[in-house]
Amino acid sequence: MFTEKEAVAIDVKTRSVTFDDGLRMEYRKLFIATGSKPKPMNYKGKDVRNVFHLRTPEDANSIARLANNKNAVIVGTSFVGMEVAAALTDKAHSVSVIGIESVPFKKALGEKVGKAIMKLFEANRVKFYMLNEVSEMIGHHGQLKEVVLKSGKVLRADVCVIGCFFPLHCCFVLALGGDFGPWIWPVSVEFL
Ligand SMILES: Cc1cc2nc3c(=O)[nH]c(=O)nc-3n(C[C@H](O)[C@H](O)[C@H](O)COP(=O)(O)OP(=O)(O)OC[C@H]3O[C@@H](n4cnc5c(N)ncnc54)[C@H](O)[C@@H]3O)c2cc1C
């Protein structure tokens, strides 16, 4: 077992993996389990503070503290986003959820279940802005104050949580130039 080593390149022709310290190891079979990473999003105001990808216990504590009796905006309507929304309904002054689909969990659970879940959240004061995306985060003295949506709607915000992840932390795999689509692990492992 190696710790504190990052795999930075895979060469499928020579069947080898290169690590950040220059070590190169050959493999017979390769299994990649590098997890997920936040999906890059295109909006203005990337330097504004109090916008989180929930990755660490410190992030969770900061979100809970900043949302207390304040306005929370959540981007993403799948497992992470909806879990955060649920956790904040009885803590935050307001909880707004932004999603690119028509209902939450649409891809994972379908339209019908998504609609029912949306109603349940709405009954608990959560406001949804669906078929929408963030266009800008506006800060005051560097701290988040407003989230502007592509529809033009402006939401008051003291904290924003972005719950959009790539299912695969695979930059070095993608660097190979092959199409290792996120849901085709068995195929890519076989291919390697
Ligand atoms: C906020 C949040 C809440 C979640 N809640 C749940 C839940 O309630 N239930 C549930 O089932 N799932 C939940 N998940 C999802 C769950 O965390 C993931 O599905 C799970 O961690 C995936 O495991 P993994 O081993 O594939 O990846 P990870 O747990 O992400 O582990 C990947 C490992 O690979 C390492 N790594 C990455 N790149 C490299 C590299 N180039 N070289 C070497 N090492 C590398 C990382 O350091 C890490 O140690 C949640 C996720 C988040 C973010």
UniProtKB/TrEMBL annotation:
Pfam families xref list: Pyr_redox_2
Top-rank lineage group of the source organism: Eukaryota
GO molecular function: oxidoreductase activity, acting on NAD(P)H
Keyword Nucleotide-binding: no
GO cellular component, one term: mitochondrion
Every FAD/NAD(P)-binding domain range: 2-163
Gene3D superfamilies documented for this protein: FAD/NAD(P)-binding domain (3.50.50.60)
GO biological process, one term: execution phase of apoptosis
Keyword terms: FAD, Flavoprotein, Oxidoreductase
PANTHER family tied to this protein: APOPTOSIS-INDUCING FACTOR 1 (PTHR43557), APOPTOSIS-INDUCING FACTOR 3 (PTHR43557:SF8)
Protein name in the entry: AIF family member 3
UniProt source species: Myripristis murdjan
